Amino acid sequence: AGSGKFFVGGNWKCNGTKDSITKLVSDLNSTKLETDVDVVVSPPFVYLDQVTASLTGRIEVSAQNSWIGKGGAFTGEISVEQLKDIGCKWVILGHSERRHIIGEDDQFIGKKAAYALNEGLGVIACIGELLEEREAGKTFDVCFQQLKAFADVVPSWDNIVIAYEPVWAIGTGKVATPQQAQEVHVAVRDWLKKNVSEEVASKTRIIYGGSVNGSNCAELAKQEDIDGFLVGGASLKGPEFATIVNSVT
Ligand code: PEP
After folding, report:
1. What is the pTM of this model?
2. Could you say which protein family the record assigns here (predicted)?
3. Residue 51: inside a domain, yes or no?
4. Residue 2 has pLDDT above 80, yes or no
């Protein structure tokens, strides 16, 4: 882990029912979580209010998406104002499922990030390469381009956590090796140093996501530039998610 406070997010994606989420929240409320870790969970929109109201204040809540501007005549969208209204503190933007399945591009994601940050939400900004991009030696190029799209528009870096999530590792059980993750995290930090500022590079948390679980988290957490995790599948199990939170070294 690096010098910033460890940050662990749980991305529940499009999973759960009222009952399963009630149980998950109750498990989370009763587990012991290291105090020196920021912990955030991201339920589906329809359960955000339920989760925000039932989780203890120890864990903050994130949305999985937000609209690019002020709410209004945008059928099916959820505004940043509405998220703030129910006590949501964060939003995940640029997740690979939204980039590659829904088709969101860098510019659209950048607009969302700028709007959310201007309105006071924290942003978990996701970047990461596809398998074919890695195999073609383009990992850094892809990550830097996605990073630049955020850097070009964000008002400040105070409220941003960068999640490096290689697409080939998401939901596949194929976790990046600690060395593979560390290599990209250092490169991202270096990019921030050169293109934003030394201060932003050293204080911005860069977390890893992609098949993190209770068994592989400790080795990853030892890497100097891994400042936490974004966890999908394993965040749906309270005790395993707690193990990941508590893997901070
Ligand atoms: C994610 O969706 O952000 C993620 C990392 O998923 P998983 O942990 O299931 O690979």
Report:
1. 0.98
2. Belongs to the triosephosphate isomerase family.
3. yes
4. no
